[in-house]
Amino acid sequence: MEQYEPVLKRLEKTAKQYTNIAPENGQFLSILIQSIQARNVLEVGTSNGYSTIWLAAALKKTRGKLITLEFDPTRAAEAKAHLQEAGLENVVEIRVGNALDEIPKCDATFDLVFLDAEKDEYRRYLELALPNIRPGGLIVADDTITMRDEMPDYIEFVFNTPTLHSVDIPLDDGIILSYRTEL
């Protein structure tokens, strides 16, 4: 058993309180990261670090790094403690602050971006991150079925931007997976 698995199991009991992703979403993200051999990933919305552990565990296998953004310092501290317990703290950089301010400060080229924060800001997050997403990179947006009415501009953007190929995936609360094509 991997060191992070007991931490994930424990955090699954607090999923509703922290509005964490479902375990199958974590597995999906892990498969995506490993299949594209991602080296740099951006997570917008850390919460208590549940999804962060899934991302970091996959990135440890690809020798990658994760930048995760969290607005709430208390949640960021919880996430940091969970990552240390899971033995994944060296894979992750937690940045505390408003994602709209923090995304432009990221100078990495991202292979994958995971959006799971303020739903009505998804389009702005993506517009800020898009210059740093490599051609062939992926964008995964969470809660796109259950909270779809909070992100109409994001939906319109990802399905009508020529450099993005997007698909709705009915996994848990819904995911939109977007592929960035060549410019």
What's the arrangement of secondary structure elements?
Layout: H1 5-12, H2 15-18, H3 23-35, E1 40-44, H4 50-62, E2 65-70, H5 73-85, E3 92-96, H6 99-102, E4 110-115, H7 122-129, E5 133-142, H8 152-160, E6 164-169, E7 175-180
Parallel strand pairs: 1-2, 1-4, 2-3, 4-5
Antiparallel strand pairs: 5-7, 6-7
Helix pairs in contact: 3-4, 7-8
Describe the structure in brief.
The protein has 183 residues and is an alpha/beta fold. The chain contains eight helices and seven strands.
Q: Would you give an account of this structure?
A:
- The structure is a single chain.
- This protein has helices spanning 5-12, 15-18, 23-35, 50-62, 73-85, 99-102, 122-129, 152-160, and strands at residues 40-44, 65-70, 92-96, 110-115, 133-142, 164-169, 175-180.
- With 183 residues, the chain is an alpha/beta fold.
- A 7-stranded mixed sheet has the order 3-2-1-4-5-7-6, sandwiched between helices.
- A hairpin with a 5-residue loop joins strand 6 and strand 7 (175-180).
- Helix 3 (23-35) runs parallel beside helix 4 and helix 7 (122-129) packs parallel to helix 8 (152-160).
- The model has no long low-confidence stretch (mean pLDDT 95).
